[in-house]
Specification:
The structure holds two protein chains of two kinds.
Chain A: H1 26-35, H2 38-49, E1 61-65, H3 83-91, H4 98-106, H5 111-129, H6 133-142, H7 144-148, E2 168-172, H8 174-186, E3 193-194, E4 197-198, E5 206-209, E6 222-225, H9 248-267, H10 304-314, H11 324-327, H12 337-367, H13 371-384, H14 396-401, H15 411-436, H16 438-463, H17 474-482, H18 491-502, H19 507-512, H20 520-523, E7 532-535, E8 549-555, E9 565-570, E10 577-582, E11 593-599, E12 608-612, E13 616-621, E14 628-633, E15 638-642, E16 667-668, E17 681-688, E18 694-700, E19 704-709, E20 715-721, E21 738-742, E22 750-755, E23 760-764, E24 773-775, E25 782-787, E26 794-799, E27 804-808, E28 816-818, E29 827-832, E30 839-844, E31 848-853, E32 863-866, E33 870-871, H21 873-889, H22 902-913, H23 919-922, E34 930-931, E35 935-940, E36 946-951, E37 956-961, H24 963-971, H25 980-1002
Antiparallel strand pairs in A: 1-2, 3-4, 5-6, 7-32, 8-37, 9-10, 10-11, 11-12, 13-14, 14-15, 15-16, 17-18, 18-19, 19-20, 21-22, 22-23, 23-24, 25-26, 26-27, 27-28, 29-30, 30-31, 31-32, 33-34, 35-36, 36-37
Chain B: H1 3-14, E1 18-25, E2 30-33, H2 37-61, E3 70-73, E4 77-83, E5 87-94
Antiparallel strand pairs in B: 1-2, 1-5, 3-4, 4-5
Classes of the chains: A alpha+beta, B alpha+beta.
WD repeats (chain A): 775-807
Keywords (chain A): Cell projection, Cilium, Cytoplasm, Cytoskeleton, Flagellum, Repeat, WD repeat
Biased composition (Low complexity) (chain A): 15-25, 34-58, 128-159, 392-407
Chain lengths: 1003, 98
């Protein structure tokens, strides 16, 4: 064994390291590695390299005795005054192996000293291996600094293993211990090693990116959190080690060796007793083992709209109804904004259900029978079951839970039933909420429109005069043959479609749209195209087979059965909406009235309904407030409705119809004596009085023309009392019954009024004593006056004397008389086309629509179309009554319930509608006599080449102007958008045409 | 269920080719159906997922927007879905063939 190195004296190494590595054996240094993981390891490295420049005598003797007699810890003398060295050491704190210990020491800033220190350390190691206590003490004195650091031999910061540490470190040498104790507080930047407390060298890796460059703008702060090395602030090693620890074997071995050592010591001289003061390591007397900390990963995705919703929810005072998040929250996730509301709702609902269930249970327990529960539930569920006779059983969860319990059910299942019922009741309540929600009816309407859209798409295109509709493109034909309804397409057309599509890629669609038998058209429920058309042979109207008047569809439904169309008006705000007034013209037939608002979107059911208990006789839309519609009634009353208001009022009409009904009228004329009309209001016109606002002018058979102002309710002021004109001898009344009126296009102060005695009077709104002008010529009541939308001086009139006449306001006799030779029926209505200045149409009592163009043909209409014959409603009514009687007498017979099968359902519908009946029924019954329905009124659409014709059976047929007229229609502008010069030209043209024809007529 | 809704439902059902009308709540549970159990379940389950996806697409493109209608046209039928806050209204219409 080598002698103790004299150089170990600190004086001899004035600048040398005062530290050393004390390692009794090679093996023990390996142990040291094993036992000191992580942070502890680097502390040994630090100790090794610390250049103690204190110059003080740090002499200490260390005798470290582990149970195996080896000091396997490294320490350092803690009064380092060279912080850079420490820092450098910090960097390589890992992988401190015996080799790196050496390497590290050689890399120390004082290499020479370091080498010697390392050498000495090795020597010490040798020495410590010597069991001789004196030698060891002297060598330990040289390695004094190590003593201070000897404390944490077993410190293991990272490993969870608690090292069994029976090893005792005794520091021999007071001075060393003092300096060791005093050292750490003086080192400001060194890693402190106080009484076994380690300050880990772990660094916190928190990456922050603060975008300071962006200045005042709030840049997003990105924080990335990642796992760092563990920093141990306090570690108290345990005296105990878990028996299943992997180190147990080693420790047992160590313990055994230590025991052996102790035994050997008793008899050996190699051991001596000295006193020393050292910091004792606090040790835990108990070991605690715990379960690994459970970890769970949670992920969530926030879409942009989730964030938007949350923001909207956080912002107060936002109208939630407009918020799409509210509308669409069925798709919102749980936890998004609206769910808070939803969950509250659910809670409410739940408590409600609880109460309900509690009550039910209480009552049933009281009676001792739970049958009530099932009955009650069944009742509520059957109340809602099925949307109608044709609808199947309700959905399973409902049905399953609320199935009636048999009377013999055991008590057990009954209690189960209660539990089930709670869920079912909950579900049922939620379902009811849905079924009663406001949105549902609008969704249903939307759905209905979509269904109709699929069906009417082709005809909608035609309605709009879309290029693809005129002439019908092959593609469209193809689409039509594919689509649900090819009722417009005859077999030939379908054939065409087939020939087109067979060369097409979409061959397989062709087989789907196989042509119908031609006969189907006859049995077609819509039967729209069956109208016969007779065009005048001059070719003015026809061009290459295109129909002049093409019926697109017919507005009718259960609500219109047994009613007569009395008046019509296209909405000025939305020209796709046609308001149709229904009411009988004759006193005996009065059975209530209605106004239905038919939209293009759903030709089969009105969008809005106004139901009144007397017949509607006049209707007009306001142009200033396009949502206002005024109606005149058979009893002389006038009502103004706002079409925007919605009130779901169950309709009593025919006991069948239900729809969106307009609520009460906004304004209503008061039945004050002498104020409102005493007789039916036959025509209503809104007219703009400029600053005075828009007023309503009405005319009635009581002979008065009244002006209604909307300023204070409906206040009335008489405009004119129509007096009899001409020979008044022998007449009972001195007043003439007014039937119609119209204002010229640009003058709201003048109007023309038509009377029952066949005269037309020009009146001024400001002068009510006499007529400005009177026009005679008609021999029957004048049913309609229509001023030209192009020329203020020209107007048309139609009359019961089978004629239509055109007038110029400065001539008291008519300019042209229009009368078809074979017409011997009343002309009920006449209307100008708003696009073509010389075109007008009239409808007659024998079911024909005549289109006239007096520029082209003054003597004959350019097109005449007879609408379909319909079964005589009177006959049908009689038949129905008989059937009713029969069903009263006998069993229900073969009368199938409505809605059981589709064919039957539609059959019934059409039956009650008084319309055509499908062929399936025709076989059984005798044919109803067909009659031509009288046509009562007509209207031109303002935005399409469309003519709406109302008949006396409640149907409103929509005709499209085709052929040349349709083509020129598409090229023309609406009268209201023509410029001054254009208008002047048009007016000249009208006048020229008029008087030219007149001259011709006279010649 | 109000009479008007009832009426409209009836009308929709009486349209030509309409195979079924379903009302499905937000959880995909059918509330009202005119189809048999099996097809009700499959339509309800599949369409509520699809409608959710469609709505998500619409709202991701523009979060202030919202899905109002979804139409699926196939060789045999057309499925129309009108979603609302708490439910989906589904109508299945067959293409009519002779």
């Amino acid at each position: 064994m080598p002698p103790p190195a004299a150089g170990m004296d600190s004086k001899s190494r004035a600048r040398g390291s005062a530290s050393g590595v004390a390692s009794s054996k090679n093996r023990s240094s390996a142990t040291g590695i094993r036992s000191t993981g992580g942070a502890a390891r680097h502390s040994s490295g630090a100790a090794r390299l610390s250049g103690g420049a204190s110059g003080t005598r740090t002499r200490g003797t260390r005798h470290s005795r582990s149970k195996n007699g080896a000091t396997h810890a490294s320490g350092y003398r803690g009064d380092g005054r060279k912080p850079p060295v420490y820092l450098q050491v910090d960097g390589e704190r890992r992988n401190v192996t015996p080799k790196s210990l050496l390497r590290g020491s050689t890399a120390a800033p004082a290499p020479g000293d370091g080498n010697s220190a390392a050498k000495s350390a090795l020597q010490q190691t040798e020495e410590n291996a010597n069991p001789n206590p004196t030698a060891s003490s002297s060598s330990a004195a040289a390695a004094g600094a190590a003593a201070g650091a000897a404390a944490p031999p077993t410190a293991d910061a990272n490993s969870g293993n608690m090292r069994m540490a029976k090893s005792h470190a005794e520091v021999i040498g007071r001075r060393a211990s003092i300096s060791a104790a005093a050292g750490p507080p003086t080192t400001s930047q060194s890693h402190k090693n106080m009484g076994g407390m380690h300050r880990g060298m772990s660094r916190l890796h928190t990456q922050r990116e603060l975008l300071k460059e962006t200045g005042p703008k709030l840049a997003p702060l990105e924080v990335t959190l990642s796992e760092t090395a563990t920093a141990t602030l306090l570690h108290i090693p345990s005296m105990w080690e878990a028996s299943d620890s992997p180190n147990v074997g080693v420790l047992r071995e160590d313990n055994a060796r230590y025991e052996e050592l102790l035994q050997r010591r008793a008899t050996s001289d190699n051991f001596g007793e000295r006193h020393t003061q050292t910091l004792t390591l606090a040790r835990k007397e108990k070991a605690v083992s715990c379960e690994p900390v459970p970890k769970r990963e949670v992920a969530t995705m926030a879409t942009t709209w989730d964030i938007h919703d949350a923001q909207m929810a956080a912002m107060p005072g936002i109208n939630r109804d407009d918020d799409p998040s509210r509308r669409m929250s069925i798709f919102g996730r749980k936890g998004s904004s609206n769910v808070t509301q939803g969950s509250i709702q659910v809670e409410d609902r739940a408590s409600e259900v609880d109460i309900e269930v509690g009550r039910t249970v209480a009552t049933t327990l009281a009676t001792g029978c739970l049958l009530d529960v099932s009955e009650a539930t069944t009742q509520t569920s059957t109340k809602d079951a099925g949307v109608g006779p044709g609808v199947g059983a309700p959905a399973a969860p409902q049905g399953g839970a609320s199935a009636p319990l048999p009377a013999t059910t055991e008590m057990e299942t009954q209690t189960d039933g209660v539990a089930l019922d709670a869920d079912a009741l909950m579900f049922q309540r939620m379902s009811e909420d849905v079924l009663h929600s406001e949105g549902l009816s609008s969704r249903l309407l939307l759905m209905e429109r979509s269904l109709q859209q699929g069906r009417y798409h082709g005809r909608h295109l035609e309605y709009r005069n879309h290029p693809s509709a005129n002439p019908k493109s092959a593609l469209e034909r193809l689409a039509e043959s594919m689509s649900l309804d090819d009722e417009l397409g005859s077999a030939g057309e379908a054939e065409l479609a087939r020939s087109v599509s067979s060369s097409n890629v979409m061959d397989d669609f062709d087989s789907m749209g196989s042509p119908k038998p031609a006969g189907d058209d006859a049995s077609n429920m819509e039967g729209s195209a069956a109208a016969t058309e007779k065009t005048d042979g001059d070719g003015a109207g026809t061009s290459s087979g295109a129909k002049m008047l093409d019926m697109l569809w017919k507005h009718e439904c259960v609500l219109t059965s047994n009613r007569s169309v009395s008046c019509m008006a296209y909405s000025k705000g939305n020209p796709d909406v046609l308001a149709v007034g229904y009411g009988e013209f004759y006193f005996d037939d009065q059975n209530g009235g209605a106004v239905l608002f038919w939209s293009l979107r759903n030709p089969e059911f009105p969008e809005r309904i106004i139901e009144v208990d007397v017949g509607v006789t006049a209707i007009d839309f306001s142009s200033r407030n396009p949502s206002y519609v005024a109606i005149g009634l058979y009893n002389g009353a006038i009502q103004v409705y706002d079409t925007r208001s919605k009130a779901e009022v169950p309709m009593t009409m025919s006991g069948m119809g239900c729809g969106l009904s307009l609520g009460a009228p906004v304004l209503e004329s008061q039945a004050v004596e002498g104020q409102q009309h005493m007789e039916p209001v036959w025509q209503l016109k809104w007219t703009d009085r400029g600053e005075r606002g828009e007023v309503l002018v009405s005319i009635s058979t009581d002979g008065r023309v009244l002006e209604w102002s909307l300023k204070k309710g409906l206040s009335v002021s008489p405009l004119m009392e129509l007096k009899r004109y001409g020979d008044t001898e022998g007449v009972i009344s001195r007043t003439a019954s007014g039937l119609c009126l119209d204002f010229p296009r640009d003058d709201a102060s003048i109007y023309f009024a038509g009377t029952e005695d066949g005269h037309i009077h020009k009146c001024s709104c400001s002068y009510n004593e006499a007529y400005l002008e009177s026009y005679t010529g008609h021999e029957g009541p004048v049913y309609r006056i229509a001023t030209s939308p192009f020329d203020a001086n020209t107007f048309l009139s139609c009359s019961a004397d089978w004629t239509v006449k055109i007038w110029h306001d400065r001539r008291s006799t008519h300019v042209i008389n229009f009368h078809t030779v074979n017409l011997s029926e009343v002309v009920n209505d006449v209307a100008w086309s708003p696009f073509l200045p010389c075109l007008f149409a009239s409808v007659t009592g024998d079911g024909r629509v005549e289109v006239w163009d007096f520029e082209a043909s003054p003597h004959d209409p350019i097109s005449t179309l007879y609408v379909d014959s319909v079964p005589d409603p009177a006959w049908l009514k009689k038949q129905e009554e008989e059937k009713l009687k029969a069903s009263h007498i006998g069993a229900n017979g073969d009368r199938s319930l409505p809605g059981t099968r589709q064919t039957n359902r539609t059959a019934t519908t059409y039956d009650s509608a008084g319309g055509r009946r499908p062929r399936t029924e025709e076989g059984k019954k005798e044919e109803a006599p067909l009659i031509k329905p009288a046509l009562t009124c007509l209207a031109f659409s303002d935005n399409a080449p469309i003519l709406a014709v109302g008949d006396a059976h409640g149907g409103v047929s929509i005709f499209r102007l085709g052929g040349d007229v349709g083509a020129s229609h598409a090229k023309s502008k609406h009268a209201s958008v023509l410029g001054e010069s254009e208008l002047e030209q048009v007016q000249k043209r009208v006048q020229r045409a008029m008087f030219q024809q007149e001259d011709d007529g006279e010649a | 269920m109000s009479a008007a809704v009832e009426e409209t439902l009836k009308r929709i059902q009486s349209h030509r080719g309409v195979k079924g009308v379903l009302i499905v709540n937000s959880d995909g549970v059918p509330i009202r159906s005119t189809l048999n159990q099996e097809s009700t379940d499959s339509y309800a389950a599949l369409l509520s997922q699809l409608a959710f996806k469609a709505s998500s697409v619409v709202r991701t493109l523009d979060e202030t927007d919202g899905l109002t209608f979804l139409r699926i046209r196939s060789n045999k039928e057309e499925i129309m879905v009108a979603p609302d806050r708490d439910y989906l209204l589904i109508v299945i219409q067959r293409h009519e063939m002779n």
